[in-house]
Specification:
Blueprint lengths: L13 H11 L5 E3 L16 E3 L2 H5 L12 H4 L3
């Protein structure tokens, strides 16, 4: 969700464009990010499901996109 690891900054994050396009095509978008702080009405995050655990984010997913290089992802199962 954030534009780089180690920050809560979502300004001009590529994930915003990707999520918006997926949502426009009717996809259900679920996100995981340990620090992101979207405001409740920040599009497209007002339409996404956010999870606190990587495993919960991937449960039932048809695809996964890694947009930000969080260290937690390098060790995820």
């Amino acid at each position: 969700m954030t534009f780089k690891p180690g920050t809560d900054d979502m300004r001009e994050a590529p994930s915003t464009v990707i999520a918006s396009r997926l949502l426009a095509e009717g996809a259900s978008v679920t996100c995981w990010n340990p620090m992101a702080c979207p405001t409740p009405k920040m599009a497209p995050w007002d339409q996404t499901h956010r999870q606190s655990a990587i495993a919960d984010t991937l449960t039932g997913a048809d695809a996964a996109l890694l947009v930000t290089e969080w260290p937690d992802l390098a060790t995820a199962d």
